[in-house]
Specification:
By secondary structure, the chain is an alpha+beta fold. The chain has helices at 37-45, 74-130, and strands at residues 2-4, 7-12, 47-52, 55-57.
Length: 135
């Protein structure tokens, strides 16, 4: 089985562009460059935004993904969504651990630098006093 969750996607808005211009160039109505995300990209580069519906395909019987079986197999969709939710939760935990590990050296660096500076200063004092009869 293959499950497509609903989401927007880009598709070419018309025939291929010519002379370095994007598809559908003569009809483009670009949004502000500050408009980010899929709709901003589409408006500036000759794409259209389409919405993919919830889709379920039996890849053994339909490798070309032509027959959406979502309405006929809600139990499979439920099981696949539960699996996906568990995987997303595991990924979020792993991401949080990675972020914490990445932040830990950065947070420890000032303390380590201070400790190193203190050790260096003590060593310098020891060296300076060694020739003057001080331990």
């Amino acid at each position: 089985w293959k499950l497509h969750l609903p989401h927007p996607y880009l598709t070419v808005a018309g025939p291929p562009g010519r002379n370095g211009k994007p598809s559908n160039f003569e009809n483009l109505k670009p949004e502000s460059i500050q408009q980010s995300g899929i709709r901003g990209i589409a408006s500036r580069h000759g794409y259209a935004v389409r919405e993919l519906e919830l889709s379920l395909f039996d890849l053994e019987a339909d490798p070309g993904e032509r027959r959406n079986l979502a309405s006929q197999h809600p139990e499979i969709i439920l099981k696949m969504r539960e699996t996906a939710a568990a995987m997303e939760a595991a990924n979020a935990d792993a991401d949080a651990k990675l972020a914490a590990a990445a932040a830990a050296p950065a947070a420890a660096a000032p303390a380590a630098a201070a400790a190193t500076a203190g050790t260096s200063a003590a060593a310098a004092n020891d060296s300076a006093g060694a020739g003057k009869g001080q331990p």
